[in-house]
Amino acid sequence: MAGTISHFHKPPERKQISVGEPRAVRWLLIAIALLFLGLVLVVPLVAVFTEALRKGWVAYGQALIEPDALSAIRLTLIAASIAVPLNLIFGLSASWAITKFQFRGKNLLLTLIDLPFAVSPVISGLIYVLMFGMQGWLGPWLQEHDIKIVFAVPGIVLATLFVTFPFVARELIPLMQAQGSDEEESAIVLGASGWQTFRKVTLPNIKWGLLYGIILCNARAMGEFGAVSVVSGHIRGLTNTMPLHVEILYNEYNFVAAFAVASLLALLALLTLVLKNIVEWQTNRNLHSEPLIEPPENRP
Description:
75% helix, globular, mainly alpha, disordered N terminus, disordered C terminus
């Protein structure tokens, strides 16, 4: 036995061949990337918080508790709190249908999901004005029944929904396609209902991708400007969201208040970035924690 084992030699290690760029080139590329990030990302963020605090914390706080600012913050939260759950339901339903079933119009549904990425937000806002405005297709009927959509909260919610509804679906569709449907089919064969299969099998597998899509959707909902600007009417204290309120304050040369409200959006962006990295780290951790090859001791 010993003689037999002695015939097996460890294969010679391959030499690591460096195929990268010279060190000077790598350092130059890193320096260019850091310089670009500094000019595009870091410097604007520092400028926002510097201008917001230029007159001290008292002026900063007063700018945030001013009635119009509170109204803008409240409206932004309302629009996001309505748009994100609806996009969550739509994203889960569309992803489930596209990845688990074959049906006519599947490619058309995928195209419609990508539509907000191809259409300018301003154009989408104009479409809502043409549909629900006083001179629009449904305008006279809405006016007769005293229903306000454009230049009111419903129009802002609709515009926010349009620009944000691809995010959850577009995060889940590739993930669910990569996972396949073997586990769901096995659960159904074992007697699980559709809801049990979704809750026990599908949802745990997509939870991190789902959270990632919700984070992106919420960030876009709170920061949307173009579509909301068209349908809001810029009614101060009523239909202005945080981005629109920042624009008004800046045009009035009230720079401290404008940058104070803008700092909230900047903090939201930073929080979104942190949560995004946490979700990506957790997703990669879960992927690497699954063994690619079953250990020999577990094999029959």
